């Protein structure tokens, strides 16, 4: 593992990594266990990956923890996940703080219970002055809803005369997203062998490098993170240009 970490070029780290933490349920069921058992073990991976990103010097880490669509899961699972969330935040805030990690939350917080919001507010407040890794939790998050919400607010500002319709451009839209303060993710990882975006950061992932692995989230550790980053560093990000333009090759 140290061998893998040593291969990473620290000067070319992705500034922002986004992860769809998928496969908890299957991981548990494959062992004859309840799905919640998988979510419980997924927390261990979160801890490990947050630590890994902080050690490397990654600036932003966005974790997709709960989608708007996940509210439609059986009540038992939703309640279990929410309890786990409250417990985890309560237990981990001190560690986040000690490691200079700043928590952020994106998503429709109105859908979350009072207990969850209270726990989140406390942790946001406690870690608010930290200057290390920015840990962005996507909770009750939907990329489409984020865009609709942004368009609505832009329309309201146009209506109120604060903004001119003709002046709305990509940068304007970006400023109305929940992620306005963060750079776009450069690397998006999805675990558990699913090849889809599932309503995650639809606008922000436009030019992200996508990395898919069969590893289930509860098995995902720093070693897997290093593999993803190394894969990222071996890619050529062209942004619509030709390879020669990128490498300054005279041909
Ligand atoms: C991801 O694991 C965690 C959440 C969506 C909350 P899943 O619960 O989706 O696990 P699978 O995909 O059913 O295995
Ligand atoms: C995406 O996983 C959401 C999170 C990881 C929080 P899902 O398991 O809910 O996505 P689908 O249903 O397979 O697309
Ligand atoms: Mg899933």
Automatic annotation (TrEMBL):
Its cofactor is Mg(2+). Keywords: Magnesium, Metal-binding, Transferase. One of its GO terms (molecular function) is magnesium ion binding. It is an enzyme of class 2 (transferase). CDD domains: Cis_IPPS. InterPro entries: UPP_synth-like, UPP_synth-like_sf. Homodimer. Mg(2+) binds at residues 22, 209. HAMAP family: ISPT. GO terms for biological process: polyprenol biosynthetic process. It comes from Phnomibacter ginsenosidimutans. This is Isoprenyl transferase. NCBIfam families: PRK14830.1, uppS. The active site is at 22, 70 (proton acceptor). Its EC number is 2.5.1.-. It comes from the Bacteria. Substrate binds at residues 23-27, 35, 39, 67-69, 71, 73, 190, 196-198. Binds 2 magnesium ions per subunit. Catalyzes the condensation of isopentenyl diphosphate (IPP) with allylic pyrophosphates generating different type of terpenoids. Belongs to the UPP synthase family.
